[in-house]
Amino acid sequence: MLYCDNCKVSLKGKHQVCPLCGGIIQNNEDVTEDVFPNIPTIYQEFNMFIRVMILISIAAIIISFAVNIIFTRDSRWSLLVAAAIACMWLSMFFILRKKNNIPKTILWQVVLISLLSVLWDYSIGWHGWSLDYVIPSICFAAMIIIAITAKLLKIGVGDMIIYFLLDGIFGFIPIIFIIFGGLNVLFPSVICVATSAINLSAIILFEGDNIKTELKKRMHI
């Protein structure tokens, strides 16, 4: 047990100085555990996972630049890929900091960036890059953010339903462009739709029973 001569009190934990007066405390060689345990932050708990995701992001940027230089020198789509990945990490940083109404925050960010890109494309003469690259890339990044956020924050089944709907929305948007033939470049939209299908399949396979139970509770079936 720790003891402070100034305050005449005994202390629990592993303090170096008295939390009341700041004086040096005596150690009676019977150290107890801290009253308030040290709870790791998200960044400490998932340090390796975050490092791996950062490495994957860097690799994706490097590969996109390499492919762009080798096969499609006439366009600069790799810059949009790099910008989308940077926006994804910036968005996830603020989401993890706030932790309030995450699905709504992600949805508004996707809508806002998509509208700004369309307006920008239109203002410079409409080249179609907003539909070809930006919107599919933003939707793809949003789905990756949803998956990573679900892992880091350990969301419940109730929130999983909202994430399920968001994945469907983000995958449905590029399908509209593909069906109506408004695209000059297909592969970003195809990748986005495929990612949405994979995410939805994973949620159904691994959380399907829990989602059904949650829906029955909410609908009083």
UniProtKB/TrEMBL annotation:
Keyword Transmembrane helix: yes
InterPro entries from the UniProt entry: DUF6320 (IPR046283)
Pfam family, one: DUF6320
Keywords: Membrane, Transmembrane, Transmembrane helix
Bilayer-spanning residue ranges: 48-71, 77-95, 107-127, 133-153, 160-180, 186-206
Keyword Membrane among record annotations: yes
Tree of life domain: Bacteria
Record's protein name: Uncharacterized protein
Organism listed in the record: Variimorphobacter saccharofermentans
Higher taxonomy: Bacteria, Bacillati, Bacillota, Clostridia, Lachnospirales
